[in-house]
Amino acid sequence: MTQAISAAEAAGVRLPGLGDGRAPAPAGGRGDDVIDALMRVLTQLKRRSGDPETHARVFLLKHVDALAPVRATDVADHAGLDASTVSRHLRSLEDAGLVLRSPDPDDRRAALLEVSDAGREVLDHAARARSELFSRATDGWPDHDVADLSRLLDLLAQELETL
Length: 163
Description:
The chain is mainly alpha-helical. The protein has helices spanning 3-10, 32-48, 52-67, 72-79, 83-95, 117-137, 143-162; strands at 99-104, 107-115. The chain has a domain at 50-125: Arc Repressor Mutant, subunit A, CATH 1.10.10.
């Protein structure tokens, strides 16, 4: 196992094909050009989203918002990250007033999380910034190309979710 893979796993990143009994696909396989393009797109979006901490906050806030009211462990599962790492970051979001914590009525030992009004403002601002960036990047594209891109990426995401 390479040092980079070991570091990723230590950071709580789950890598498919490692430790789950499946071998990773060979390099140069079908879809590498698509994956490379997606990675470049994500890199550019992260680069333009400001500091990495803001990107990480928005990432977790989006998961909390999608699942709320939700336990931290469910956020970690949904995000595909280590529960202890996510819990630490969620505490930081709570300390910043972006996430609200309340007792779980079904299990008083557990807590449920939801996005606060301040957290909603952060999400709204991030959504506007992403939308503006995407609009600028696709300004010269025909509407049907933008629709095709959206449809195909959604289809790919759905297929990956079923694996």
